[in-house]
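Q: Sequence in, structure out?
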Amino acid sequence: MFIESLWRYPVKGMSGEQIDKTTLTPGQPIDGDRRYAISIGGDKVANSPAGTWFKKAHFLQLMSHEALAALSCVVKNNHMLISKDGTSLLRADLDDVNGVAAVEAFFSSYMNEHMPGRLHGTPKVVRVDTQAFTDTNAPWITLGGTASIEAYADATNTFPDARRFRLTMMIKTDSAFSEISLIGKDIMIGSAQLRIVAPVGRCAAINVDPVTAARGKDTLSIMREKFGHTDLGVFAEILSSGIVRTGDQITVL
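A: Exactly. Output:
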């Protein structure tokens, strides 16, 4: 097994960026992954201290806001660029209060136009610096096998696209769900050591096509029928720091 691709998703629910390498650090997510999130306008997020982690129900996210998939979102040096179909819609400095206000106004307008009634108030940009707005507040990263993606696509008659599952590391595998066999084991990738701790249980977000932004059929029920479970990918805890690159071999310790 080896790393086929590395990903990070700077803003929860938004498009990802493929990267060539990353430095893994114990107690941290992949650098830049889900550092930002956009609230649905609830008072709890608005009135909480900066850096507070919340469950996904408080944010715009693909499980309930599939219109996000139509947007491309790139964040570099805390500058956000949002585009759609190749047309730039917004450039904003997330370190500037005016830039943050512009992002909040954009998502308020966009959601009210494309998914009216889904906001609870004015969206708020939030960020965390020492963890990520992933679905668990544990500082874990995620790995998934290419054969698992292909098996899912086969079973659901969809195109195999790793972005549907928002995993941070895709590993080249020959058999579906073989990454599950790594749970409980320590592995080396590049110069970093990790422990595989649990499967990633999927939610309705995987029903959203990452290309068309359309919500499709209930593929969770298909997974239960075909595979006997709705897991795809595994969580990993970083045990020691190191650089990981695309193409690095995975060694089971």
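The chain has two domains: 3-30+135-252, 36-127.
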